[in-house]
Amino acid sequence: MVKSLGQITDFPAEGQKGGAPAPNTLLVIGTADGSMQSLLATGASKEGYQTLSFSHTEQIDADALEAASLLFIFVSDIPQQALLPQVAALIDKARDISVIPVVGYQDQEKAASLLELGCADFLLSPFSESQLRALLRRQEQVRAAEEGFVTSSPVGRRLLAMAQRVALADAPILITGETGTGKELMARYIHRFSSGEEAPFVAVNCAAIPEPMLESILFGHERGAFTGAVTAQPGKFELANGGTLLLDEIGELPLDLQAKLLRVLQEQRVERLGGHKEKELNVRVIAATNRDLRREVAEGRFREDLLFRIDVLSLHIAPLRDRREDVIPLAQRFIRQYAPQEAGHELLTESAKRAMLLHEWPGNVRELENAMQRALVLRNGLFIQPHDLGLPNPEPQAPAPEPLQEAAVEGKAALRARGKWAEYQYIIDAIRRFNGHKAKAAKSLGITPRALRYRLKAMREQGIDLNSDWLGESQQ
Ligand SMILES: Nc1ncnc2c1ncn2[C@@H]1O[C@H](COP(=O)(O)OP(=O)(O)OP(=O)(O)O)[C@@H](O)[C@H]1O
């Protein structure tokens, strides 16, 4: 609970006085001295924000939460031991809003823990108007770039935070990850974040271009450089000048071109085939691969010096099976994309969600996107059922009931051995087996009823609906 409550104050932005909160609304919670409040309101208004101030969290109404994109909380009012839980609860309440704690110099060491909780950034108090405005602009950029990249898993959030950092550095980036994990999308995200929407983004898939053409496509050619070169053509490097060049599947580049690419990267100049003039380049190069380039080097297929050159900053995108919290948000995003007319309806049935959470997704996000497109076409009626998804084993069957004692021994080992999501399914199966009787289910799983309650809470937080009829969750 925030101490020393102040009055609710309102600082409408210029040109946005009165009425419902405007989209660029900044919520401010907690007390600060008058000069700090007006500095905040003035700085924010110059960046186009309307500021709404509340003395404590409970006063924020749903309309304000709906409209706001940023929330500042002055943490100096919060007792030390309550700080992290209180901010965590706030982040949970303000799900789609970036929460930014305003931290006093004496609390600086708290900043790292606050960021770890999921705060988008922090502001050290006292701050200047230009520091505030720089932070607001940074957040604006983050939001614009994030629009395309859906993630709600901790590993995904960490990846995005890392991507924002590497985007601001001026060095080549290597993105690794299995096929369909979103490497190209991530490259676009970094591009938008570092160079902006206006600058060129050029992607070359090194595996898709026939080898004899690769050199001229990358570096360009002058007229007459080779038979068939009837006109001069700029290469992808030149086309990407001032922006970003994505070299997708860089592991497929032949060795001789790897040498030439290395030279271009080192010298930041390119010369077209058959040309005599070098052109200065200002290109951010992002390389992407689903191969293990270190192994490629060991096996003589990739130049070590080129690997060192491109692997200055690297980002690894985890496979979807290792960030299952992203599955449902991604699915919902594809539904919005492919069936915008039905936005607002929850089309996914609980059993479809379960099937999706249990699937391994070897083709990652691309496979999920295809499954959603297919389901939207094949569904009967409004809702998407497991069999619409075209997954190999859409609705795993619950195992037959087992005697309690044996099940308990096996249950504990099984809980450890299976991954988290398989564990959830195992728990659901157990509760079903005992018709919703949780004490019996816990016993069969070899855990205490309290531990089971704790796990069920975690499952609810992951979006698993445990109250529906299929679970028969009524008795204790
Ligand atoms: N986090 C995400 N949010 C929204 N869409 C995503 C996300 N990740 C991937 N996608 C979508 O999934 C599809 C595959 O992504 P992308 O082409 O970026 O993967 P990739 O890793 O480059 O694949 P490949 O290795 O096969 O080239 C695209 O349609 C992309 O928009």
Automatic annotation (TrEMBL):
Keywords, ordered alphabetically: ATP-binding, DNA-binding, Nucleotide-binding, Transcription, Transcription regulation
CDD domains for the chain: AAA (cd00009)
Protein name: AAA family ATPase
One of the protein's GO biological processes: regulation of DNA-templated transcription
Segments forming domain Sigma-54 factor interaction: 149-377
Pfam family membership, one: Sigma54_activat
UniProt-listed InterPro entries: AAA+_ATPase (IPR003593), AAA_lid_NorR (IPR058031), CheY-like_superfamily (IPR011006), Homeodomain-like_sf (IPR009057), HTH_Fis (IPR002197), P-loop_NTPase (IPR027417), Sigma_54_int (IPR002078), Sigma_54_int_dom_ATP-bd_1 (IPR025662)
Gene3D superfamilies (alphabetical): 1.10.8.60, 3.40.50.2300, Homeodomain-like, P-loop containing nucleotide triphosphate hydrolases
Organism: Alkalilimnicola ehrlichii
Domain of life: Bacteria
GO MF, any single term: ATP binding
SUPFAM superfamilies: CheY-like (SSF52172), Homeodomain-like (SSF46689), P-loop containing nucleoside triphosphate hydrolases (SSF52540)
